[in-house]
Each structure stands twice: as structure tokens, then as C-alpha cells.
Prior knowledge:
It is found in: Cytoplasm. It comes from Pseudaquabacterium rugosum. It contains 15 helices and 16 strands. It is of the alpha+beta class.
Amino acid sequence: MAEILQAVKGMNDLLPPESARWEWFEDQVRALMRRYGYANIRTPIVEPTALFVRGLGEVTDIVEKEMYSFEDSMNGDQLTLRPENTAGVVRAAIEHSMLYDGGKRLYYIGPMFRHERPQRGRYRQFHQVGVEALGLGGPEVDAEVILMARSLWRDLGLKPEDVRLELNSLGVPAERNAHRAALIAHFEAHIDQLDEEARRRLHSNPLRILDTKNPAMQALVEAAPKLADYLGEDSRRHFDAVKAALDAVGQAYTVNPRLVRGMDYYTHTVFEWITPRLGAQGTVCGGGRYDGLMAMMGGKPAPGVGWGLGIERVIELLKECAVEAPSTAPDAYAVIPDAASLQQVVPVIEQLRAAGVAVLMHAGGKDGWGSMKSQFKKADGSGARFALIFGGDELARGEVAVKPLRAAADGQPAAQTLQPLAAVAGWAAMLRDA
């Protein structure tokens, strides 16, 4: 017997009925994007490794530890399974001159890959929704993308207490460089208090030390120089305008001076949506402004802002909050006595489906069609609201018996009716809209 092969650790199958929850979630996302005027973009899963080294930063955790990179055996190219998609969207915008006629509002849905320890809501193949507003530099666009996420929480049925918003401003590179020097001096003066990871990052990426989870370093981090003290007037004005827009619509937030995000390309506003319901994996959406990324990628300088949302984490959050997706049960289940009746039955079922009625047809197979009782049991188990009974007597009269399987609104069982096969359009709406 051949060996049974299994999926790669941390790369999971998504099976019914769970996949229906994902489809519903994606439908909510697409409807949201239409309302905000964001168009779909689809980029390759495999990109040149240099794209992420340049875009994310050589000393980020993603580039140093987490990327699935390999050499193309055909031509020696260095390639990587995308660990995120902002860099890929910016690459596509440059390659196809997408900003020649003004800014673009874009979104994507798809798989990303990071080689890390699998845990709840954090997998080696994971899925993201992302939005990218390219060529649009105003603080009102920062607020817009933040409020898009708020709208999505509402559309999904989450409550304000289920997610909270944290903000910070990283300013511009010159301001960050001055703050960086001050950070290095502060931590060098207390180097005996730094753990191994902080010492490794001290000169390469000291800003990331602020994001440490080590309890022994919290007091030292709290005493570190604050980036807000190094922001110039323009950066302060930009951040104040973002906060004012959020205040205007009553969106609560906390300014977190330690919020830095994990990529080097961020400037000005950064933000995270965090839930208290998922423990250590509490960040369900994060992003910010990246005005220097287009130039870093070799394009004409242009601003950008966006976010990425982890679908697995949001699905886990929906479960924790007992948010149920709408039922995907069929409208009707076709009960069929034998193969001889299929010539009459199949055309009717196809007409119903064309009229928008979801019909699950009983299948006989090698073991036969089974008794009517067993078929009714399957019809009830399918969740369908109606059974369509194509019995021999009914077919002889050119009819089908329509039997409600669920109680009426008053709790009383509805009566079975007979419907003509020759006039499907006349009764299809009854099944579809019940």
C-alpha cells in the first residue's frame, strides 16, 4: 500500500463546512471594497527575493528568519514565496506605471508564507486581506483605511469592545534617525539590562527593541526616548489631522508610543487593531503609511498607505464572539425514487437552479437509490427548507410534491403542495425566497 501523504506542517486544508465561513467573510470584504471604491489587484505568489530584502529591510525578523526562499533550478534566480504583499503591489504599480494618471485604491485577498512556529491563528501558509492606497498622501486617506477596517468589524457582526485601535506616528526618516541615535545611546548606557535579542538589534534596528515582550526590560523601554519628542511640525500636523478625523466619527483609539510595526518601510501613521479575545495573537489588522517605499523600489517617489488583515485570526475572533455565518443549506432537496425518473426530473432541477433555487439532488450510485424514508432523512440532514418528491404517481400526472421540512413562523408544520412540472417559473420563487 502506498504511503499516505499529509499536508506540510503549518499549511492547512480548509474543508466544508468551515470553507463556507471563509466564503461569507470574503463576500463581506468585497462588498466593503466596492463601497469604498477599492479595486482588486492580484500579484504572483512568488517574487524575486530582492523585492522583500529591499522593501522590508535586511534586519527585519521576516527577512532574517521567516522567508521561504529558494534558487530557481532553471536559471538560478533567487525567489521567495511572498511573506506579505505590500511590496508586491508596489512593484506591480511601478512595473505597469499604474500611477501615471493619479492615485490608485487597491485591495487583495490571498495566501502568504512565513516559516515560523505554527500556533493558533498563526500558520506557515496564512491568508491576508490587504488594502493599498497609492499616490495619495493626505492624512484623510490614513483615516479612511483605518475606518475601512472599522466598517468591516461592523459588517461581520463584531462589537466595539471586541477590537480596539492603537496609533502612533513614526515621522519621517530624518526624525527617526535622530530618535534612533538617542535610543542607541540610551540602551548602550544600560547594556547590562538588554537580553540577547535586544543586543543583536541595538545597532541594526533599535526601534524594534521597543516592541520587546521581555518583562525584565519593560522599565528600561518605558524610560527610553520617545519618538514623539523628535517629530517636526509637519509630522505632528499630519498625525493630528488623522486623529481629528477619527475623533469626528467617534472612533476611540490609544496613542501607543511603542507601536513600531515589523517592516522598515513605514513613515508617519502606523496602527493596529487588537482584540483581547485571542491572547498573544491579539493583533488582527495592522498597517500604516509608507511614503518612501515607491522610491526604495526604484519607482518615482509617491506616497502610500494601507493595512494587512490576517483572515485566520479574524475567523478565530468570529468564533470566540459567537458570530455565525449565514446558512449555506440548499433551498430544496430532490427526492428521486429511481434512475428511470431522471429523464423527467433533471430538466426540472436545472430550470430551478437557473431560476436561482439551490437544489441538492439525491444520488443513487452503485448501491441504488435507497428507500424514500432514507432519502427524507438525508433531505432533513441537508438543512434544506423543502423536499421535492418526484414520486412515480406525481410524475405520471406531470407534478412534483413540495414538502416543507421546517416549521412555519408560527411553529406549525406547513402543508405539502403539488406543483406542475410544466410551469417551474411559477413556483420557483416560493422555494428561493421562503
